[in-house]
Queue: 2 jobs
Job 1
Amino acid sequence: MTELTKLGVKAIRDGVRAGDFTAREVAESFNSAVAAAAELNAFIVTTPDHALAAADAADKARADGKKLGAMAGVPIGMKDLFATHGVQTTAASHILEGFEPQYESTVSQNLWDAGAGMLGKLNLDQFAMGSSNETSYFGNVASPWRKDGTNAAMSPGGSSGGSSSAVAARIAPAATGTDTGGSIRQPAAFTGICGIKPTYGRCSRWGVVAFASSLDQAGPMARSVEDCAIMLGAMAGFDPKDATSLQMDVPDWEGALSADLKGKKVGIPKEYRMEGTDQAILDSWEQGKAWLKDAGAEIVDISLPHTKYALPAYYIIAPAEASSNLARYDGVRYGLRDLPEGAGLQDMYAETRAAGFGDEVKRRILIGTYVLSAGFYDAYYNQAQKVRALVARDFEQAWAECDVILAPTTPTASFPLGSLEDDPLTMYLNDVFAVPASLAGLPAMSVPAMLNSDGLPLGLQLVGKPFDEQTVLDAGLAIQQRAAFDHAPEKWW
Amino acid sequence: MSVDKQTVAKIASLARIKMGDDELEHLVPELNNILEWVEQLGEVDVEGIEPMSAVIPNRLRLRDDVIDADPKTAGGRRDDVLANAPAAEHGFFGVPKVIE
Amino acid sequence: MSNYRIQGQTGDWEVVIGLEVHAQVTSSAKLFSGASTAFGAEPNSQVSLVDAAMPGMLPVPNRECIRQAVRTGMAIEAEIHKWSRFDRKNYFYADLPQGYQISQLYHPIVGEGQLTIEADDKSGIPEDKVIGIERIHVEQDAGKLMHDQHPTMSYVDLNRSGVALMEIVSKPDMTSPAEAGAYVRKLRSILRYVGSCDGNMEEGSMRADVNVSVRKVGAEELGTRTETKNVNSVRFVMQVIEYEANRQVDVLESGGTVDQETRLFDVATGTTRTMRSKEDAHDYRYFPDPDLLPLVLEDDFLADCRASLPELPDAKRTRYEQELGLTPYNARELTAEVETFGRFETLLAVTAAKIGKPEAKVATQVANWALSVAPGVVKGLGEEANLANSTPEAQATILAMQDKGEISGGQAKEIYEIVLREGGDPETIADEKGLKQVSDTGAIEAAIDEILANNQDKVEQYKGGKDKLFGFFVGQTMKAMQGKANPAVVNQILKDKLG
Ligand SMILES: [Mg+2]
Ligand SMILES: [Zn+2]
């Protein structure tokens, strides 16, 4: 029999439907793989029973001749930013340790409704703030990848680093991620998997611990474009509980997938040719162009003049929103309470938040508080929102010339955990290519392209028009077919 | 614009995060680095540009005035609301005594 | 300009007042969640996950709250902003679960408007005065803290958390406690007419933040103001102003300065004091709420709002005077409260129909009845009055009998008294108790003939030009008829007989 943990979403779904194996067998295989991979620290809690229950439900439905859901029999990892009913939800913070939501996020509910099961809650950067998965209260996540010939633990990227690590290590066929400024795409690129952030508003934010509301979007992370299309279809949909949710039908992305790009124009933004970008990354970009051309697309040069300013604008807007979104963690209604003898209410807040938030979270809350404080609002926040409008306008103008944009996902491959610890700015630069699409709310995907000379994966990014996930997925598929990226990390855990 | 230790202390207090001297001192150069870097935004000509208010052209949807229409946003679930409270007594959340 | 002055040792001071009135919007569910807004529920029983600010919860606005704010804006002749937006006001407090209040700072839904307070000599308001309104914005209410239930803890009840409020911000146009009182009363009346707030001040549906400053009479510049929070009656608003104005004058005259601060009103002592808990909360870091998109109002929506507006107090008062011919006093009294004009208009319609005359012809009679006659009878009866018996039908029947001359004013009261006490049909009561006037000319004529015959001397004097004696003959006739003669008939016959 096939080794079940090598299978992805589509293969599991089809195999369960065809009766090649049972969903229970699949769940058991992945539960064991998860249990054996503690060294990766990809999970904060595991929920093998949840996976088994969903699997049994899928097997029973099949036995009863019922129609199986789009994700029936597929056990997945759930980023620990999604509230899961009765299952600890922490956002990888101490301040939410032990918090058991009495509600289920819309996205996770959609997945369960589609027949998926949960292997566990995946580790992440605390409150999704980070690009290396080193800010979790529950410890760093290790990438399953290592530089050729070394044993140093590498970063799986962030903030969806538990997700990327688990999927790349084949301990989960797929996982949810969230992307605020690259948090799906960058970890996908670092670990040689696919990940798509849909158009802002496609996936409900209801029940997802908020980082920066105007940027946060959930999306799937998996090992193929098809798997992403299937899972995104299950996650997405209009939700009246989210005022920013798109009131639109969810297209059949999987059904419409096509790697034939005839008639499509692919834009190459010249501003993404930035200093400090690895030569190997630039090479992979060239290769990507050739692949898309081969798939029938026309390659055109475009300009996104405000690219350079996207990242600094992001580092004003996201912390500003976060400073406010995280005010609710105050020790009153849930989570940690640190109340020294004789302390008053305001002391309790300050003590609780000092003890409950990690350094990076505090740093961003302070930045956000500062840029919104009296006298600075116009110079920082308002200016950043104006620049954001310009970044979005750049894209709008680009759509007159192309249908989809090809760019690298990250300026470098993964790096060893700890190597950028004291250098927040350099860390932030990881997301330089990812952030513009986030600011503009556009669908964007990373697909694996190749390994660099160290044997580490590199990803290519596709950015599409609003609501046009299909072209993004199609172009991703064209690359996937040509890159034939079938590398897997060597098991060391 | 740059921040000094006193300013950082003020922001930390505004954000209700208790910070010791060491921490404040450590943060001053870190925050200044970041602030200096984001200040390049000042170069951008934003004449006539409205600050972005909706990422995707979309307008605010309004809800009907119906009580408890959806259990997920309904009242009448006090136990759920209090389930994770560090101090819940007699149906209330408890906090250290406040003098108004 | 009011002539309200504080006489200080260094001269006369005037006071400048602005009011921020928080009015709870009439809606079934909260502004951003489906939880009920009903008053007086068990603690935390009307709290949704959204209101408790659980992680990942999101606000979705209630259309009715927006509609009511727009209608209110229209009622104060304000500019309605078709594009508005919600902002977050950030501060930490135990009654504020999100750590921010969703409000509107930069782009409120309603812009500048106004209302008129009426002249009232008694209160030192010599003439009608227009008070400017700066804006109305929509925002969330906070929860409630209880301090007296536990020795070391305060208790938090979030039932009110997320209830929709309109904050109605006046311009600093008021210059006396009386003007401020009149403003709150007028605003309350408008809100209740519109139906956007029940105006119930005891239940906290309306409360005012009172901004007070003082300056020397004639000074151009405004003094430093204090804001006294959450004052929940008209009387208290006036007390706060009185107290604060005097306190500030004392501070200034003894060489001190007034701190710009938030204060609390102490009902028991009628004084104000610094509010400790809000001392350092002045940097609210307002910014647009990223969970909410801009609020864009469609023309259809606005047209519906406008079409649904009732006749408002000022317009109604004018109509009562001009079309119904009521006195200014009666018109004002009848239009002050929704309940009053509601009862009046019903009674007027039923009475006019019963009598078969246009409303304008019976309005004065009905107004007098509603404002003075009927309340007088009710008051006289005290506990004995059962108001449920006082149907419009019964009252209209009494008024119609009176109009036809079947009963006198005194009889109307007597009949009404019986109706209030025992119920029943006024006509039957009048018949059974003999409470009817005699209009039978024969009986009256006989009585008059007898009186004239017995008073020949006075008849001569009258005919000789002593007109005043007419009253004497009327009085004698009524006495002879035991007060039950129809005065009009008596007058007519007397005139005929005396030539
Ligand atoms: Mg106020
Ligand atoms: Zn307010």
Job 2
Amino acid sequence: MNTRWGYPVPLCRARAALLAATALAAFAATPALAAGTRAGTTISNTATASFDTGAGTQNINSNTVDMLVDELLNVTVASNNPADVTTTPGATNQLLSFTITNTGNGVESFSLVPNAGVGGDNYDPAVTSIVIDDGDNIYEPGIDVVYVPGSNDPVLNPDAAVTIFVLNTTPGTAVDGNRGIVALVASARTGTGAAGTTFAGQGEGGGDAVVGLTGASGQDDGAFIVASANVALVKSAAIADPLGGSEPIPGAIITYTITATISGTGSVNGLVISDTVPANTTYVPESITLGGTPRTDANDADEARINAGQVVVSLGTISGGNIRTVTFRTTIN
Amino acid sequence: MRLFVTAALAAMTITPAAATQVALTNSVFVERVSTDGNGNRKVVLEEPKMVTPGDRLVFVLNYRNASAKPAEKFVVTNPLPAAVQFAEQDEAAAVVSVDGGKSWGSLAQLRVRTADGAERAAQYGDVTHIRWAFNQPIPAGGTGKLMFRGIVK
């Protein structure tokens, strides 16, 4: 018997590896679905032959072999937050974003399960809801639909993807620098398991559903980082009496210095330093300084003003690592 | 080359197989690779009813000349199913087409026109047909086997 190979059988490992490499390269050049041939497709193969046994050219067909393409169950989950998302203690509706991609070859619905207890972090964010994006990759409360397991599981065509938002509340007990991880797990509704696990007859198009290399389940982590800041205020007083000494006698000038030290990786908003002019002293007009620079008493564009006997300095938003120094003077009555 | 083109055109008019005395039988096997407890790789060929993307297929064509006369100008053509990617060829034994059977040659000889009008060397993924053209007649009673490999896209 004659045997002619379109390609010699690759029995040796090196040859098999070469074949795999060339096959991959060829795949990359083929504009086909990444997920492969659509489940339910019938692959038919028929060969033809022509020959001449003396009565002119004749043509024959071979028999036809049909194979049904099974559904491969594959899915990937990818976090859309490459860097930690900053949050603050007690903050609500803190968003993490994930992309779920059906890398199988059939239409499939996927269940979504968040897991805030994956470990390797400092605190567990409280997952409050999962929201299915409407396609613009922007979280829109009231427009994007809240996910209800088993009720509106995302249904994805092969190669199709959907963005999922996971909303969290940051515990009030979390402190500056704490990290909290939330994982999102997407699993094929048809079933999951080790690669090769088969669900007979449950594939799209009537074939089997076969678990692919992803195990028909995907997972990725998103993380929050708590960025908060604290303010420490220190007040001191220096007295200069008219005699050149430092005795608290009438006519002596008291210079008060208030130092605000902001610490932490976050920032404080709306920081206001206010101090009541002490009894039995009289405020020295236009004596406020901020960072050594005079500020006016009037309620105007600068940070400082006198309001009902109080020195008020509105510093606004200051990030951690900064120091603000306010001084003002009074005269002892 | 002229001979091949003529044969391709002729192949379009199909004579019922029963009226001829040369038979061509087509079998497709899938290579299932398993590893036993001792780590030995075992390759099993199965005739599949169902396949999944990435499955490696072996196409086997058995021919037999049942007539009393030699079959001359014997040419076997297998159009590749659209969902199958050609795996590799032995250039000495077969020619391929990357344009639906219009022109033939070894893969290294063939070129493909890209969408932007340029040309590039043909790749495995471009192959649309595989063909064997015999120089020698198949003797009366002669049999043989042709094979090629593909991967489910």
